[in-house]
UniProtKB/TrEMBL annotation:
Name used for this protein in its record: Olfactory receptor
Record family assignment: Belongs to the G-protein coupled receptor 1 family.
Bilayer disposition of the protein: Multi-pass membrane protein
Domain G-protein coupled receptors family 1 profile: 43-294
Natural source organism: Ursus americanus (American black bear)
């Protein structure tokens, strides 16, 4: 696991221990996490299937929803299988390249989830505030460009974080008290300063996820202003109905993300096992809840899913 010479020590593998302090209970903790992962994969898989199956759902709103579902499946799959292995079999070794790879995809997929939510907010803004320009602004080529842009943004933002990890020298413990590899969890094991890693991570988070949240909030402020100016109660109810599911998803995602982020940064007296559980929940709860929210709130998705299930029988 460790290669040494006279001047430094370099780890070739890290040991992921799981949830510190709750080792005796991890087998029980794995039950709800397994259930949530199954719900996330099956639910989001059904959403992607109905959008691909029904040509009537090839509208931007549903294409963005399919992007969100795909991102959710990938994000939960990057984290949960290794986490369950740790819960069932105990601490697990992860090679240095494998750890960096997992770190890259965890952060990149989280950023792309935020970007998809921003794109969905823009879609609702155009549909409600400037409906006459909807068909020209949100064409098929635009959706493809958005998909490429969110992938490019995630890669461009996360890659420097990985390169900053590569500049560090590891001469202390190779034990990561976590269920997956993440930026600061690795950086804090370094024997040289990781201040630059911390500054870049905070700046990148504020300029991506933080900015996304500001723009989404602005979009919905403009949407609400337009909705309240509609002449009839029926029109206002219909407008609110088209946004209800998206607002629920946004609240779930950003509430958990910001709560976990600020707790990690400023919750010095919060027990470590609470921080680790929060770090897992804010990445796993949204993929689990998103298809449920859209299934309940969106009639088109709900009816298509029921039709797909009845055909399977």
């Amino acid at each position: 696991m460790i290669i040494s010479n006279s001047t430094s020590t370099h780890h070739t593998a890290f040991l992921l221990t799981g949830v510190p302090g709750l080792e005796d209970f991890q087998i029980w903790i794995s039950i709800p996490f397994s259930f949530m992962y199954l719900l996330a994969v099956i639910g989001n898989g059904l959403v992607m299937a109905v959008v691909a199956w029904d040509r009537n759902l090839r509208e931007p709103m549903y294409l963005f929803l399919a992007m969100l579902a795909l991102n959710d499946v990938l994000l939960s799959t990057v984290i949960v299988p290794r986490m369950l292995l740790i819960f069932w079999q105990g601490p697990s070794l992860s090679t240095f390249p494998a750890c960096l790879t997992q770190m890259f995809f965890v952060h990149a997929l989280f950023l792309s989830e935020s970007a998809v939510l921003l794109a969905m907010a823009f879609d609702r803004y155009v549909a409600i505030c400037v409906p006459l320009r909807y068909a020209t602004l949100l064409m098929g080529s635009f959706i493809s460009k958005v998909g490429l842009a969110l992938v490019a943004r995630s890669v461009a933002v996360v890659t420097p974080g990985v390169l900053l990890i590569l500049r560090l020298h590891f001469c202390r413990s190779n034990i990561i008290h976590h269920t997956y590899c993440e930026n600061m969890g690795i950086a804090k094991l370094a024997c040289n300063s990781y201040a630059l890693n911390s500054i870049y991570g905070l700046t990148a988070a504020l300029l991506t996820t933080g900015l996304d949240f500001v723009l989404i909030t602005l979009s919905y402020w403009l949407i609400l202003r337009t909705v309240f100016q509609l002449p009839s109660k029926e029109a206002r109810t219909k407008a609110f109905g088209t946004c209800g599911a998206h607002i629920c998803v946004i609240l779930i995602f950003y509430t958990l993300a910001f709560f976990s982020f600020f707790t990690h940064r400023f919750g010095n007296h919060v027990p470590r096992h609470v921080l680790i559980l929060l770090a897992n929940l804010y990445l796993l709860v949204p993929p689990t809840m998103n298809p449920i929210v859209y299934g309940v709130k969106t009639k088109e998705i709900r009816m298509r899913v029921l039709g797909l299930c009845s055909q399977a029988k």
